[in-house]
Amino acid sequence: MNSVVSTSASTGEDEGLPLLESGELHSRRPKSSSSLSSSVAPRVKTTETTIHNALIKYGSLLLLVGQMVGLVLVMRYSRTHISNGEMYLASTAVFMMEVMKFILCLGVVFYQLDLSPRALGDEIYNHVWASPNEMLKLCVPSFLYTVQNNLLYLALTNLDAATYQVLYQLKILTTAMFSATMLGRRISSTKWASLVVLTIGVAIVQMSGSSDSHNNDASGKEDRNRLVGLVAVLCAACTSGFSGVYFEKILKGSDVALWIRNIQMGLPSVIIALATVYIEDSREVYQKGFFVGYSPLVFCVVTVQAVGGLIVAVVVKYADNVLKVFATSFSIVFSCIISMFLFDFRPNLLFVGGACLVILSTVMYSKPEYPPLLGAIHHAELHCVYLEQAINITRIPARIRQIVYPQPRENSDAEGIPSSTDKDLQNYLYSGYELWSNIQNYHDNAQYLGIMK
After folding, report:
1. In this structure, are 342 and 423 located in the same domain?
2. Last residue of a domain, one of 365, 398, 421
3. Spatial CA neighbour of 68 closest among 413, 332, 452, 302
4. Are residues 133 and 227 both part of a single domain?
5. Residue 269 contacts by C-beta under 8 Å, 6 or more apart in sequence?
């Protein structure tokens, strides 16, 4: 990708790209229909490929919704319905989950390396044993993720599934705060407003639960400590936000593949989880055994939690952020509905209102700050790639052209495009490519360009 950008910027032309000179667009004769179809044809997806990608896209999204809802409900059920008289230890469940997730990541990398054991061994040696500094940096998120998983078990032991799903969305607030402080990311006014709405919604949900809990305690129906669950959710949201932003900062600072990073994190996570078992529950493990209280339902909880990372990776690749937001919203709604039948959960008006505010804030936070087209062309490193598609649809208005081709400035080439020495080139490249890749319907872009004229 870098080579493509640098080549097009230095020569000012490429196959299918407009000629550039001093920030202006050369006038050229429109392509004939035959030449246009021949240039676009290699990039046009066949119907079968489109259907296949759509099935993967929405299928993975359904799996993500199912994983979000299923994990919370099954985990909650396993912590409140004891079949054999013994409650399983949460620390051992976290350890088993980390082991299974580590094995799954190894399997994915092994598959990507064409099932070559030697190549897998080389990758593990180069990125694990021969990279002690990287492993030390990854011990921080590994420790936090292990703590977070233990907190989730504690929260779902003391909170119903629906309330937990709503309260846990506070991780959006903590992620935004840590992104602003650790990554220097600007938070727009819309996102600040969404964070305020989120906080209000969570507070309303907590108020509704407090009144219900008081009534239920008086009648003897409630046997859980809601305050402990609330503190556990808040701590889990904080650890989720910090560890996620920390991990993102590490990813942007190197070119190591994501699955290799998961393996690097998985190894210390397994060790930390095992240490947690020893520190918290060593006596119970010694007296009753490691798998005390385990049942097929517990193994189901461990499996669903372990495969969640794989499902998220597929969604990130084939879907977009808006669809992930809808998946989160649907998971909250489905958790409430299923909890009404499975756990005799009865939401009041305060809970419904607070949950709606949380869902609204999630949608607001993920809304683009500007239209997709303007968002794409604001990333100067990708202007040639985007114009390769846009120039075949309609003429670029003067206003758009001024945004794409600014006046030359210091530390830039003749066309005014930031050179490869620009400090933020890599960050712009990643964010611009992600935004541009979501623009798939070029007819809509043509209509938008017409409005801008």
Report:
1. no
2. 365
3. 332
4. yes
5. 98, 101, 102, 142, 145, 146
Q: Is 6 helix (H, G, I), strand (E, B) or coil?
A: helix
In Å, how far from its chain's centre is CA 223? 35
In this predicted structure, which of 151-160, 244-253, 412-421 has the lowest mean pLDDT? 412-421
What is residue 25's three-state secondary structure?
strand
**Alpha-carbon span 366 to 200, nearest angstrom:** 18
CB atoms within 10 A of CB 409: 8
The predicted-structure confidence for 212-238, as pLDDT tens digits, reads as follows 555 544 444 454 578 888 899 999 999
How far, rounded to the nearest angstrom, does the alpha carbon of residue 368 sit from its chain's CA centroid?
A: 16
Q: What pTM was estimated for this model as a whole?
A: 0.65
Which element (helix H / strand E) includes 20?
strand 20-21
Quote the pLDDT of residue 413.
44
- Phi and psi, residue 138, nearest 5°: -80, -10
Name the residue with tokens 């003749």.
414
Number of domains in the chain: 2
23, 427 in Cβ contact below 8 A? no
Contact 298, 332 (CB under 8 A): no
